[in-house]
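Subject: Predicted fold for Sm protein F, 125 residues

User T.R. writes:
Posting the sequence so we have a shared reference for the thread.
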Amino acid sequence: MAASSVCDPLPTPRPIETTSREPPAATLRSVFRRAAIASILILPPSRLGTEILVRLKWGQHEYKGNLVSLDSYMNIQLNNAEEYINGKHNGTLGQVVIRCNNILWVTKFEGTEMTDMTGEEEKQE
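User M.O. replies:
I've generated the structure tokens; pasting them so everyone works from the same file.
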């Protein structure tokens, strides 16, 4: 077996891909900015004083009340708030503040009947 004094050359590296699959940070910032603006547009200042319904992410909790204020994070303050659990009235709370990260959705309350959103239908005997 003959020993060679010259090493075999290394294989040529593949060119590095210059296009990134992730959007640049500036694009992400604009997406978040548009989302924040959209959340503000959902509840414009003209909605202040109107009756709204807020559904929470956790459990089957809904709160109905008059919109007193909201901020850019979507924290909501309600007056004359009523709590509904599984579509059933659980009591009147008065003044409440609901933190933004707990909110699933917000809608204008139009006198519709609260529904049980558990997906289970009650058996009538």
